[in-house]
Amino acid sequence: MDCFITHITLQNYKNYNRIDVDFCPGVNAILGLNGMGKTNLLDAIYYTCLGKSYFSSGDRLVLKKGEEFIRIKSKISVGDRKEKFVAKIIPGKKKEISIDDKKVERISDHIGRYPATIVAPNDIQLLLEGSEPRRNFLNHNLIQYDVNYTNQLIKYNRLLKQRNALLKSFAERQVWNEELLNAITEQMEEPAIYIHKKRHELVDELIPLFIDNYALISGERESCVIMYKSSLNDAAFSDIMQESKEKDRVLQRTTAGVHKDDLTFIMNDQLLKPFGSQGQLKSFILSLKLAQYRILKEKSGKTPILLLDDVFDKLDHERVGHLLKILHDQDYGQVFLTDKDEKDIPAVLEQISDDYAIFVIDEGALKYSSQKR
Amino acid sequence: MDCFITHITLQNYKNYNRIDVDFCPGVNAILGLNGMGKTNLLDAIYYTCLGKSYFSSGDRLVLKKGEEFIRIKSKISVGDRKEKFVAKIIPGKKKEISIDDKKVERISDHIGRYPATIVAPNDIQLLLEGSEPRRNFLNHNLIQYDVNYTNQLIKYNRLLKQRNALLKSFAERQVWNEELLNAITEQMEEPAIYIHKKRHELVDELIPLFIDNYALISGERESCVIMYKSSLNDAAFSDIMQESKEKDRVLQRTTAGVHKDDLTFIMNDQLLKPFGSQGQLKSFILSLKLAQYRILKEKSGKTPILLLDDVFDKLDHERVGHLLKILHDQDYGQVFLTDKDEKDIPAVLEQISDDYAIFVIDEGALKYSSQKR
To answer: What CATH number is given to the structural domain containing A306?
Structure first.
């Protein structure tokens, strides 16, 4: 089912005072000089899809300086229907989101309504930093089409917090109540097994798509592999928890479980992190995210929105050509991409789609746009 | 005094099996597709100047896969003299560095002989992460021209380690020996005061140069400020240590002192970190590093080598133009820059200098070079 944004109105969103924009269902290129607000417009589209900003850690950072509220109004075409998304945000208060004037009670109910995949420069941190962003990458996909996954994840995290608090209180009070600990641990089993199973399935489906994408983008210059690392791969949850119990007691926290899952990235039989160049890391992220997009599309039954921030950055001309071919061949739905003021952007867009629009942003205002179809 | 590298020979350095390159005293552009080894060649030049890699955390990561040793031979012109730098590195063993066949006993003796400033894409982390990289930025400059600073820094860090160990042992043994603690604290005073003084002077000199550079690069679109934050700015070392003693006892570590110094970065009266766009962050880093270069040049009495990795990345065409003008006007010495395969690189280089050479790298081999003078 097609799913695309036809219009957005922003008030006080980051550097925007107020803008109104009509988008095309194909490729929308957002251009402008450094610091003009290209990424901010992309971020408002992401906000529409996921109910929060991708680039800022809280709504306080989304609010335009000196203003008091933020409003995002989007019109979305979903199959034959037209929907109206409205978010009114006053930082510090509960945010109000509605679809067709009907209030959305919880953000988690909204996620998945308009599936989206985003690629941004800082995603390279996914390859370089601790394991948390890699688990988030897996979660980000699954929560968009599997409501039960979201619920199990919330349940697991709540129990994990309780278990850690219990281990800490045992240490402080110098007691050890094994029954109480087991009672919590047993409740964690069901969500842990579900989370592990779904992540495993996701990675199994991601791998062939990722490998294909990487070969296409790199022109087969490097070969890359992803592996899913989880203590649940080779042992039952109850055995793992039994085995780690003594360690948990000493360290006063839960040392094993799906909250320790990770992905390992390999390039040409070496670990990617210390050996990958900037362009190779970028190729890796693009291949991974575009694979994520395919799966999200299949599982959600909707055509996700693809958001590409500074997408050609760091890629040499060969890889840019390969990427454009992928975007053309693999049938993406609505695409938003940002770029620095490129003279040759129409020629680039022609290679992706016959349906494109170009927006040029200057100081939070839309100065010029051209459209083709 | 002029200082530039005329020749480099690499063996088993990262992806290079063996290469020999003659450089020009002006601008050397290193071009190639993603993953070909542009940054690795830049890194070998950095190794010559600072006795270690900038991009890899240990020599093990510098060694070409499957090889056993690394050799870097460089010829450097320093004023009227020609010097020969040789590094032979077998990871896990002590590295051997010599100048004109005379062994360098300690790496710290080598630092400053060939001053250098480097700008690389990951330097943006300096603006985004914890305070350590910002202290390292200050240290990186000072150790290249102030041997006493290096010695005081080593001394301070050694005493800090001792003091922390003492606080830990007091807590474990449930004793409190104030005299012993004071004895160490008093020894820290001299290095702390020296370090603080030198950092303060450095930041005071950096600020006007930085502000000028930022205005030039951004075309005065944003105004940026740096501030030096140190507990020693407003109070005497002994008072600070006296005040924090109780806190140190509880937390079992030294909570105040120059190891907590930081820099604050402001853009348009807001904190840079949450509000700066990718292009603004890059402009900030470039302005800061080029200011560092000017000071290093003045203090060391030598013309430092300037290493610019992926320098045009993220900057819009206006800012690229402004940067080229700075590089032309401000009289830099030898410059090395990397870029993706750009068709218009000769036109770009013409704007910086009449003296330039272009190197194209393919799979760790130098395929082509052109030179103008």
So the answer is: 3.40.50.300
